[in-house]
Amino acid sequence: MESLRGMSSPTATVVREGQIERVPNSTVVPGDIVELEDGDIVPADIRLIEAINLQTDEMLLTGESLPIAKDASTVLQSEDVPLGDRINMAYVPQRSLD
Q1: Helix and strand tally (H, E) in the chain?
Q2: How far apart are CA 3 and CA 11, in angstroms?
Q3: Phi then psi dihedrals of residue 30, to 5 deg
């Protein structure tokens, strides 16, 4: 079962030390630059540094049934902004309880 789980584990495209790598989502670490394409699963909670027409499904986080438009250029003026209103961030859609 463990080997089957490993084979179906989602992967992420990251830039590490200037090199583009494909890694299991569970190995994404702070400092990785994550590249997302249409249909990708957000591998970790990330701050957006560049985005073009990006929308994410945050139903499990916020209850919103429609995708949320994201804007990397937005600078939030307060640390008290609710998670659902942080449009310069993208979040993991669900967390494993393993």
Answers
A1: 2, 7
A2: 15
A3: -55, 140
Measured over the CA atoms of residue 58, residue 63, residue 64 and residue 69, the dihedral's sign is negative
DSSP state of 44: S
Angle, alpha carbons 19-3-26 (nearest 5°): 40
Q: How far is Cα 89 from Cα 34, in angstroms, rounded to an integer?
A: 12
Helix, strand, coil percentages (3-state) for the chain, rounded to 5, are 15, 25, 60
Per-residue pLDDT of the chain in tens (98 residues, 90 and over written 9)? 555 555 556 899 999 999 999 999 999 999 999 999 998 999 999 999 999 999 999 888 888 889 999 999 999 888 888 888 899 999 987 654 44
C-alpha to C-alpha distance for 57 and 9, rounded to whole angstroms: 20
